[in-house]
Every structure is written in structure tokens, then in C-alpha cells.
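Narrative progress, year one. The postdoctoral researcher (J.K.) led the effort to move from monomer predictions toward full complexes, under supervision of the PI. The following entry was the first complex the group processed end to end, covering 1532 residues in total.
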Amino acid sequence: MVRLVASTQALLASTAAAALFPDCQNGPLANNTVCDTTASVSARAQALVAALTNEEKFNLTGNTSPGVPRLGLPSYQWWQEALHGVASSPGVTFAASGNYSHATSFPQPILMGAAFDDALINAVATVVSTEARAFNNANRSGLDFWTPNINPYKDPRWGRGQETPGEDTFHLKSYVASLIDGLQGGKNPQTLKLVATCKHFVAYDEESWHGTLRYEFDAQVTTQDLSEYYMQPFQTCARDAKVASIMCSYNALNGIPTCADQYILQDVLRDHWNWTAAENYVTSDCDSIESAYGYHHYAPTREQVVADSLVAGTELNCGTYYQSHLPSAFSQGLFNQSTIDQAVTRLYSALIRLGYFNPASTTPYRSLSFADVATPDAGALALKAAEEGIVLLKNDGILPLSLRTDRNTTIALIGGWANASQTMQGNYFGIAPYLHSPLYAVQQLPNVRAIYGGTGGDPTTDGWDEAYNAALSADIIIYADGTTTSDAEEGLDRNTINWSGAKVDLVSWLSELGKPLIVLSMGDQLDSAPFLSNQNVSAILWGGYPGQDGGTALVNILTGKTAPAGRLPVTQYPANYVNEVSMLDMNLRPNDTSGNPGRTYKWYDNATLPFGYGMHYTNFSARFTNMSSESYNIASLVSSCDNKTYPYLDLCPFAHQVAINITNTGTVSSDYVALLFVSGQHGPQPYPLKQLVGYERLFSIGAGASQTANLNITLGSLARFDEQGNAVLYPGDYSLLVDVPTQATWNFTLTGSEVVLDHWPQPRNR
Amino acid sequence: MVRLVASTQALLASTAAAALFPDCQNGPLANNTVCDTTASVSARAQALVAALTNEEKFNLTGNTSPGVPRLGLPSYQWWQEALHGVASSPGVTFAASGNYSHATSFPQPILMGAAFDDALINAVATVVSTEARAFNNANRSGLDFWTPNINPYKDPRWGRGQETPGEDTFHLKSYVASLIDGLQGGKNPQTLKLVATCKHFVAYDEESWHGTLRYEFDAQVTTQDLSEYYMQPFQTCARDAKVASIMCSYNALNGIPTCADQYILQDVLRDHWNWTAAENYVTSDCDSIESAYGYHHYAPTREQVVADSLVAGTELNCGTYYQSHLPSAFSQGLFNQSTIDQAVTRLYSALIRLGYFNPASTTPYRSLSFADVATPDAGALALKAAEEGIVLLKNDGILPLSLRTDRNTTIALIGGWANASQTMQGNYFGIAPYLHSPLYAVQQLPNVRAIYGGTGGDPTTDGWDEAYNAALSADIIIYADGTTTSDAEEGLDRNTINWSGAKVDLVSWLSELGKPLIVLSMGDQLDSAPFLSNQNVSAILWGGYPGQDGGTALVNILTGKTAPAGRLPVTQYPANYVNEVSMLDMNLRPNDTSGNPGRTYKWYDNATLPFGYGMHYTNFSARFTNMSSESYNIASLVSSCDNKTYPYLDLCPFAHQVAINITNTGTVSSDYVALLFVSGQHGPQPYPLKQLVGYERLFSIGAGASQTANLNITLGSLARFDEQGNAVLYPGDYSLLVDVPTQATWNFTLTGSEVVLDHWPQPRNR
């Protein structure tokens, strides 16, 4: 989304002055059923729509909605962003100073994903929705938010991978369910706190790579991969977490632009996943209806494209194509009256569910104010989120730092991230209350003298002499660098995933000084091989985009105030991986013909550092404590599932909880993320190397102490997907594996006949 | 050059305060021979160097030179830029306001190349050098300028193609000779006006494409292509135009980083081309010595890389690698005392030749002041340069516009270039005295109402409604768009050369209004096919990067105040060309195995619009007037050449001038560019389609009038290159062709035995 963020200020100006809510007391709609809080959502929305002319309805289908002045229906901006905090976007207005001049800015999802802590995600999302409601009450924001980005991060080059929690679908599903609950105020709340929007539906994982723009990319995806991987997070969003809105994407899927694709929008989303609440609507990505015409050339006329999109079930157009071309499309008879009525009804049902037509007294959200924004607790949560995500990749024992108290320790900070401020926010960010850089955080340490050695970028123009001289006079060297949104972000994929020759050269030069040298690898993953193999590089931390208090989080880890326990939420690929597979190749499985070596830890085994990797300041041992049976009958597993509690078979629990006892065998108290994988020979070949089926973050396990992770795995997480995309529980051999690398294994078999847990709807004939 | 332009302000600050010239009257050097204006340049430089310690010498080898305070030798910044006017760069300081707050900003070379007017180029370069000297006299600039970029523009994706005059070597050679004459103040002036620097030596044509950075690119070039194409402009620079300085490049050539390559720096440049004046020095590109280590991994130690570069003949390092590592390399015995002495001697010889150690009275340049900067004449020249370059690509008769005088004509201007200001300068620009956009220029027209319809970028965020509404109310629609430095510039190659789907969609939508619609295609070439085939697009002009008065130039062409006569200086390739050949493939000739369809008009025949293409507001006919003989003996041609006048055989004139009579058969007075090509079956196969051998711009040929172009072609321009890179005059069939498409042909044969005009030095054994 957002082709040109900079220009959104103009849109914003046009909506900020509008009335906040319709006047249901004295306005023209006061006697319309839409204002009757005792009526059903559908009845209320239908009554509103019945009062509209077609011209008015067409005007309401764009993100910048003019409302209907004659009815006192306010203009409305549907486009708000809150990827990791209330964010600058067309519908969000920050004040120049004072109240509402900032909001809490959490780490980017990729770092929060590394925490593997669903409760943390729910807490973060709750803060975000509270702050968003406060902004709304001040007429500084709408209530529809186009977050989360939940496309799985399957290729390390993807510019928007930082916006996601990672590459694994089980992880994404757990994460996003917690997130939506926090954003929307529960699963079926009386009043929606916000409308969340899962995007980008579907198979949207490419920005601009080797000349192919996302607007024109036609993703060729097998039904197997589609169901098993690309659709999974959206299934959780729509079917299980009851997200109110879904965004269709720029790309085409197997030849059809997603916003015009009845198969995915009707057959899968609405029919198969029962995404049929009154308020459920689909929005296009910004200009993606235009892209279907101008880039995909999907239909011969603009009218046909807007009609096909509306008919397929895209109710809202971020853009002006609907507003410009639906009228003539209707004149040409390309869609029915009921189609436009249904679209507008769905859109206003969502606003009704948000309490838009209700008295303020009907929900406590309307009382939230700036006192609820950027609170000290929210700030502490932002710090905690960053600390929990940071991953220790290498440590020769230098960490945690032992700083002397009898004299000052001099620490040199060098690199593009050393004094990072807004950079720490990645993309889709708001105005943070503060931005504490690594340099700032080191400067706060007692008995430490911090020297800034510059960005260390290019020898001439950025001054390696400054870096070298800083390092010369330091006791400890910290090199903080990596990628920024200049390397990878919306609209910009990477071509390379290596540390540049200049950066390796600089670190190598600094490392020859024989002093402790710690690399903070920031932003997206880069192949750490040159630093892992350099024995003079003492330690490596990965810190992603750590948000408003990122520097503090990093320094708290460095000093041991907080022990690191994050895990890589993505595979760290070797640099040459980008030469082995086209970014446009959507296949997950290895393919000898195309040369695709496989994607994600499930199918690729040559990582520099694998998914789930993360070191600690202590050591942990793991063992299964309650596994006894070594064989289970599939029919029994299925029949014992209560179909009222579990309306979908894939959600059924496995025979029993898996209990894993974790003992801290070292000397430092630390969190520990229990990761549980399954592997084994079952289902269609090829078999994945393993797949994640459960995780839990345990907190503050003391030296010598133990805690138990109780993991509820589902039948669905044990399932495999056949070529038709059906989720099937297969008989065969299974192994449960704890941790990366594996620390404990427990084997069992499933017996009997295979059972289809989810019959996947097949693509239409085309 | 310039990895990070933004950071150059810091460097600048450190040098601006230094003394301007050494004090040869009362300073410590007053009695050193360097201050003796009667001594030879070499003797003076050697005397200075003899007074230096080695430590001082090493410090003098970086672009940011500290000078030698104990000797009163001022610090000096070697890095100035003036690609198309005195430009912001480390050595150039513009004042915040008033005097020296601006300098004339001419069009980018790619547009000036399209003028095919060598006298224009000499006039422009003379203004640039005059303004640079004025800045120098105010201690706002040094005297060494790292311009021109004369790598031939062989691939349409190249980000720096805009910095060059085009793709053809004959054209580049003629252009650059005129340019250097203007910059340096003649071919062998008493005092060099400036030091010009031909860059980037050699085969540097790639920025960052599909993950390959210019710093690590190893160009694989055949000796044939190297001699015939990549080396040709540099041969003119060094051998014929006597440029004072050459810059080696980031890339490697056949495995060896160019700055460390004795073959090209010694065997070709100095030995073969006799580039041996005392002041001739080679500078590295910025950080390209570091790149040889950090990216090319050319040698195992930094010391070895700096030593190899110094020994190969790179005297100056833009960067700090020499300053940091030459001392230890010398300690290790990796180069001799004479090597560093020679390097510093050459550098200071250049300054001596600039009059750096001379009294101000010895040259009028020292009297130039701000009164000589941005004069009205210079402004008129900048406008003329733009007008001469603009190329008419399509015209259904709408141009020149017939504006009514009885009522206002409403003109809508739409697109990213409609209100362009700094964008018109491209890259490597200074602060212009004014920047007249197309919108501004239309607003100056009498009886015209201009409406700005926005940038027309993306439907939502940039507002197509604004564009459409402007077009609706206009009599004439002008769509001004194309590429900018956001699409292609230093460090950034293009992946695509098509108009984006959204832009084609917008133009198509606007064209359906049935009004005159003129496309101004700006920046680099884009495949015009969608607009050529759209009959509702009335006309297309290509305007490149037209500089400070670009809008006026475009509007003068549109209204017919000036008739267009520019010619495409590059091939306009079809969009799919980028899928047919890798940007890293340096081969010019077609190759069935690799799929390379050939490069430049010499080897590629499927252009959307060919090199040399350009329409007029009138029609011209062309005929040869003095061609009689149809056969020439090669031995006679060679033996009749006066080797005192023509020290190199390739410069020998052909038997006689070629006279081409041009008649304006239409009704509008117009310039006309006579382009003369040769084709035919002679020399090694494959034969090129044709090659340029002469051009001349004729001015203001009245309706019905004739003028004659007298073209002096050389034996070298008739030569072909064999696989060893020798330039050979071959017997065989020749055709001279006038214009594109061909309007007149004259055939002749060369008889006798082939003669080698230039014996190319062969690569060293590696």
C-alpha cells in the first residue's frame, strides 16, 4: 500500500475538518433506522443505503469518502495505518506539538515476531487500539486501520518482510490472532474497538525486482502452496480471529488480479471461511483497481475492471477508480443494483459495528483521551517488546559486558545505526515520543565514556578515519549497521543479502585492533558469515527495527540488564541464495529443474543461521515430561474432538498437551522460548524438513531452576497438504523436536486411515 | 564518482578556509624553484617534492590534501565537479546569497549531445571554465574538475547515461575534443584554464544492476570491443585533446581493477597515446582504491592494493586509502622512492600548469570575477543549448502550435515534469540563477491560460481527478513526464525502459477527450511505442534534462519560436530489449548463444526510434555535390597524409571533403543536422549496420533555401577494428549515407592492401 506516502498530507487536509460522527440526535438521519441502536447491524445499514441515490453510493466507494452532506453523513477517510503504533497516514493527523503530537512507536513486527510471545503481541495491539481510539475521539483518526501485513516472509529480498512477524505460518497464525484480538477489542465484541485489515490477500510478496513491479506481478502458485502457505494466515484472520476487513493486493494470482478474483474473494474467503458477518468488507490496495487495468490489462475497459472487482466482492477502492468509473459501468449494465447496494451496506455495517452511529455512552472507548496515549506503561512495553525480540547470534563470552566500576570504560560506536533515530522505526511509523539511539543509550551508562565514530559508510565521504580513531581510543568497539528502509521497504526489494564489501572491509580493519568488537546487525537479515568466521568479531546481536526505545533495549542486552532470548523469525540465508532462485518463483519446494533450492526452513537446509536460532547468556536443557503413548489412531483423534468447541477439524487438539521441562543449567537468569517442531515421514512427498507446531516463551528462569512449557498442538498443525490443497492428517511416523538445534525428540506414529481436516475449494475453470 | 554526495559538505568545510595560493613572494617556498616561473614545469615540481618528507608526500596523495603547513603549501581540495556548469562538490562553495550564490546550469550532456553542434559545446565549456575561474578567484573552488564523463552510453539502463553525450564513439570524440578545449583554455595553453578529467577509465557502464555493484563489477571486454568502442573517447581525450587528467574507475577490466591495471594506465594511456606531459595525472574514482580491496579482493592486503595502484600509475586517490596505507606499504618495500616522488611531482606539475605558483599577473584568468558568472549571454547560451538538443519524435501537424490571438487558449500541463524545477538539472548540478519550468514558460505566453493538472503520478495519491479536470477544461493538453534521477542516476541503473502502466493508462484516458495532446518525454529514453501507436497522441518531443531554462526551451519549440532540429544521440530501444541482454554483457556484437541482440545502432536494428532520428517543422532534401571518384587506393590515401600535421594515421583526412547540399523544401526556416554514416562490406565480419563518420549542424536554413555541409572525414573513421584491436583500413565496398532514415547514398571502393592505422597494444600476460 501507499505508492507515495509523501503526498498523503493533501488527502488528509481534506478530511480532517469534517464532523466526527453523524448527528443521530438532531441530524437528517435521526429518524433513519441507521440511528436506531436496537436494530440489527444489517437492518441499520440497509436503511441508510435505502436513503441514498446511486450517485451517492458510488461516491462512497472510495477511501476518501465525501459522505452525503444532504443527509448529514460525514465525509470519512477509510485509510489509517498502525503497523506498530498509530502511524502517519491519510486518516491520522498528529498535532504539531502538545497533546496528540505523538504516539507509542513499537518495534517493527519482524522484531516482535522474534519474541515468540503472543501475550506481548496482544498487549501491544491493545495499546495501539487504545491510542487510536483516543486519536479518533480528538477527530484525529478514523477507525478503520489497514494493518496487519500478514503475508508470510518467504524470500529474504522482500522489501516489506520487516512488516511481518516472519516466515512460518504457524507462527504468523498465532501472532495474528493475538494481534487482531487486541486491535478489535476481542473476538466478538459488542462494539468493535477498531476495524483491523489483514493484507495483502493473497500471494503478494514482491515489490520491484528485476523490473517486475508489484502492480504487474502475476504470482503463479500451486493450489498446494496456496492452501498450505500463502492462505494460512488469512484463514486465521478471517475464519478464526474474525478480522473485520481484508485487503486484496496488487498482484494477480494465476492470471487474475486478486481484487477481481471470485475464487479467492467468494469461494475461499466468504464461502469456505464463513467470513459473512455484516461488517466484513474487502478493500482494494491503493490503486490496485487501476493496476488491474493499467498494469494487468485484465479487461478491455476501465468499466469492466471496476465492475468485475465490485462483483467479485471488493467493496472499497483505495483510490478513485470506483468513484470515476462505476457510474458508467452501471450505465453499461455491467453490474446489478444489488451489487452496489451490498457493497455500501457492508461498508456502513462496519462503521455501525464501530459505534459510529451510536451515542458516546454506549462504549468506554469514546472516553479515551490523550491521557491514554504514550503512557509510561506503554513506553515500558515498547522497550520490553524490543528486548524480547533481540537475538544473540554469536558470543565468545564478551557478553554480557563486564564494565568496570573503578574507572571509565570507553566504548566506540560506529556505523549507520550507531546514532539511528527515526531509522529505528522502519516504515509505516508515527511520531514517537522519543527515539533513543544506541549511542544515546550507551551515554546513559554509568562509568562509560561513549565515542561516536561516524556512520563508517564509505571511506572518503563518510570518513573511516573518524571510525578508526574512535576505535583506537576505545576499550570496546560496537559496530551498529545493517539495512534501513533505503535498502528494503515498500516498493523496494533487495538484490543482495550480503554485508557490502566496504562494510566487511571496515569491520575487518577495526577487528585487527585486537579489542572486543560487537556487531549489532540491524534491520533485515544479512548473511553473517564474514563476521561469524572472523574470530576477532566477539559477538553479534540482531536487533531488527527496534522502535522508539531501541537503543536502550540493545544496551540493556549488551550489559546483561536483560538476558537475550529472541529467536530468528526467518531463515538467515547465505548470500548466494539470491542467485539460486528468482524472487518471482513462488514455489516453496525445491525443484531441480528450476534450480529453486527450496524456501523457508521447511524446505531449505543450508542456512547460515536457521529459523528459530538464538543464543542465551546461560544454557538450557529440555526434556519431554508427559509423553507416554507412542501410537495414536487417527479416527479416535478426530472423533474425540468436540465440534461445538472446535467447528473446524484442523483446530481440534491433539491427544494431550505436550509438556516440556526446561532447566536453566547455567548461571544467569533468562527467558527461554520453547519451540516445538514436527518432522517425519507422513503424507505426500517430498517431506518438509520440519514444521513448527507450538511455541511458548517462558520468563525469568533462574539459574538452576526449571519451568514447564505446556503446548497445545492441534491436529491441523500435524496435517500435511495434498496437491488439491486439502489439509490431511496422514498415518505415518512423527517426531516432535524441541529447540534449534534440536535438544529433545519424541517419536510417535499415527495409525489408521488418513482424514481430510479441511476440504479446500478448487479454483474455478478459467 | 561520489558515493554519497550529501555528505560532501563536511569535506568542503575543512578546505574552504585555506589560503588560496602559496605565497611565492614571502612564504617559505619563495626561494624554492617551484616559485621560479622561468623554470620548466618539471624542474619546478621536482624542486618542491625534493623539499618534502615522505610523510608529507603520502599525505598529499588524497583528494582532501592537507598541504604542507611548514612550507606554506596550502591545503587543497582536488575534487571539483562541473558536468554541465559549476556544480556543488567538495571543492565548490556557493554563497548563501548574492555574489557566487549561483552559476549557469546548462542542460545535461545527453541533451547537448543531441544538438550535434561542436561549436556549441566549446562555447558552453568556455563559459563553465570562466565561471569556475571566477569561483576560484573568490576562493570558492579549486582548479581540478572531474568532468567529463565520456564512457559511451551503450545500455539504455545505465544510470549515468544522462551524463554523457550519447552512444556513438565518433560523436563522443568530436564532442569531447570541443569540450576539453573549452574547459582547459585550448589544446596547449600557456596556462591551463582548468584541469579537465576524462572519466571513467575504462569500461565503466554499470551502477547497480541485479545486485552487482559498480564497485565489484568485473567487465569482461574483448580487445576488439575495448579498442573499437570503450577506449575511443579516452584516446581522443588523452592523445588528441591533451586532457590533463584521467580518472580510473570502480570496475575491474578482465579481472584487474582499473586503478591497478598497468596495461591500461601505462601501456595504453601513457605509452601508446603519448600522454606524457608533466602535468598528466590519474586520479582514482572516490574510494575506488578501497574497492579494489574491499570489493574486488584484488590483493591480500590493503598495503599491496595501494602499492599496486600507485605503481600502475594512479597518482591521486579520491579517498583516504593512500593516506592511510601508503606509509606501511612503503615500510614493507612494496614500492620505490621514485614512485611516490613521481606521483607527487605529477600532481604538483598540474597545479603549476594552472598557474598556482605564479603571480596573478601572468594570466587574465585571475582577473575573472562574479561579473563574469551567469551573464545574460551565458543564460542565452543555456537556453540555446536546450533548444538545439530537443528532438521532435512525432507530429501529426499540431506543432508548431497555432495559438489564437483573438481569445485565450487554455493549456493544461500535467505530469511529473510539468512543474519541474531542480529536476531539469539531472545530477551533478550547481545552484542555478533560475529554473524555468514548462508550466512557468507556458504562463509567460500571451493569450494563454495555463492550468496545472498535477503530477498525474498515481491515481489515488497524486490525483488523476486533478489531471482529468484540468484536461477537461483545456484546449490543448501537454503531458510532461518521463524519468528523473529517482529512476536513473549515479548508483542506480534502470530495470525497465517502458512507460509505466499507470502513465500509459493516464495518457490513454486523457487522449480519449479528443483534444490535441502533446507528450513531452523527459529525462532518459523510454520506449515511445504506446504513444506512437496512439493516434490521439498528437506529438512527442524528447527534452532530456534541459537545465535552468528548460521550460522556455520546450515552449519555444512548441510555439515554433524555435524550430526543432535535435537528433536522438542514443538508440530508443523497445521495452523488451532489457530482457534480451544482461546489463553486464559488454559485447557489442550480436551473439546467438547468449541471446545478445547487439548494442547501439551499429549492431542493433530493431529500435523503436533509431540513433540520429529527429523530425522538423519542415522538410529537407539532401544530395552529395562533390563526389566523383568511385575508387581510391589505400596506399595512396595513406601516403598522401602529412605526418607532421597528422601524427597518427587514423587522423589523416580522406581524399577530399564530403560536401552535402541540404535544401529546405518546406515552409519553415529551420536548423538541420547533417549526419554522415558509412556502411559496406569491408573488414572483419560481422559488418556493422553503419557507423557515423561526420556531422555538422547547419543553422537557419530558410524555406526554399539551401546550405552545404562540408564534412572532413578521416581515414580512422573509415577503419574497422580487428580482433587484436588494431584499427585497419580495409579494401572493399563502402557506402556513405546521409541522414536517418537515409536520404542520399554514395558508393565507392577502396582498393589495394589493408593498412594498419593504429597498432593496438596487447594485454599483458596474466
